[in-house]
Amino acid sequence: MRIHHLNCISSCPLGGRLMDGVTGCIACRARLACHCLLVETGEGLVLVDTGFGLHDVRNPRSRLSAFFLALLSPDFREDMTAVRQVEALGFRAQDVRHIVLTHLDFDHAGGLDDFPWATVHMMRDERDYAALQKTWLDRQRFRPQQWHTQARWRVHEVRDGEPWFGFQCVRDLRGLPPEILLVPLRGHTFGHAGVAVRGRERWTLLAGDAYFDHRELDEHHPRCTPGLRAYQWMMDKDRTARHLNQARLRALRRAQAGHLDIFCSHEMSEFVDAAPVDAHAPPRLATQAR
Ligand SMILES: [Zn+2]
């Protein structure tokens, strides 16, 4: 299967290099990717996470919370939405038959409404908890305004899992080939999951928001920028599980380095490694298959 890496609208949080580790000053805005995958299968396209969508670009205040708009200041460009990048690659939007979500945060689920015919897969805990709208922060991050596709959501249970490199995975995603798996990685949210795709030669694991800074997977000295550490503390739902899963991802990368690439959603340097031309370029150039 062919895998394309798409950055579906960068976020530009306050804090400069305190957030992304590279932006020159701390009064500047940093740049974080929104790393999604587009997978070509024998039965159509599968999109893994959706970033921000057309409706977010055109009318952000009706869809997103004022809190996160101010904090992240997304770089709303229509040509960077998943649907426009799919078209720029020469496909029709209707070719996207399935979407697999790592979780339901606004910056991962915003493009769902651009593919209303697609079946949407996620963990049951993710849907159930997000729908509760329990706390103030939950209501800022989980946005029912982005969920017009709910009738086509299909949820999956951890207890249906089977082993995958020492993790539990859900392989039986009806309608999808067995080379696309959900890998539960609880922590950032209760139903958070990575999505693993077996490419031509290697596995690719999009680990979502299980970590934010590539150095968190450093075997000898795991670390993170202070800004991203604070952001993860603010957002996580199960801190113990998040740290445990980071340790497991670290061990996985060490053990399977020859067979597996791991990416998180927001680390720009990881995205540039995967799609090395230009993460901010027109979409046809910003994608690469491996
Ligand atoms: Zn995120």
Folded structure, characterized:
The chain is of the alpha/beta class and 290 residues long. 28% of the residues lie in helices and 20% in strands. The chain contains eleven helices and twelve strands. The chain has helices at 17-20, 54-58, 60-63, 66-72, 82-88, 106-109, 124-132, 136-141, 226-235, 239-255, 268-274; strands at 2-7, 35-41, 44-48, 96-100, 119-123, 153-156, 162-164, 167-169, 180-184, 193-198, 203-206, 260-263. Strands 1-2-3-4-5-6 form a six-stranded mixed beta sheet. A four-stranded mixed beta sheet has the order 9-10-11-12, with no helix packed on it. Strands 7-8 form a two-stranded antiparallel sheet. Strand 7 (162-164) and strand 8 form a beta hairpin. It is globular and about 50 Å long. The N and C termini lie close together (9 Å). The relative contact order is 0.17. Zinc ion is lined by residues 105, 107-108, 209, 265-266.
Return Rg in Å: 17 Å
Q: Choose one word for the global shape.
A: globular
Structural class label = alpha/beta
Q: For the record, give the distance between the C-alpha atoms at the N and C termini, rounded to a whole number.
A: 9 Å
Number of strands: 12
Biggest sheet, spatial arrangement of strands:
1-2-3-4-5-6
H/E element order:
EHEEHHHHEHEHHEEEEEEHHEH
Question: Largest beta sheet, briefly?
Answer: 6 strands, mixed
Instruction: Estimate what percentage of residues fall within beta strands.
Output: 15-25%
Q: Which ranges are low-confidence, i.e. pLDDT below 50, for 5 or more consecutive residues?
A: 282-290
Number of helices: 11
Mean pLDDT: 93
**Which ions, cofactors or small ligands are bound in this entry?**
zinc ion
| Helix-residue proportion | 25-40%
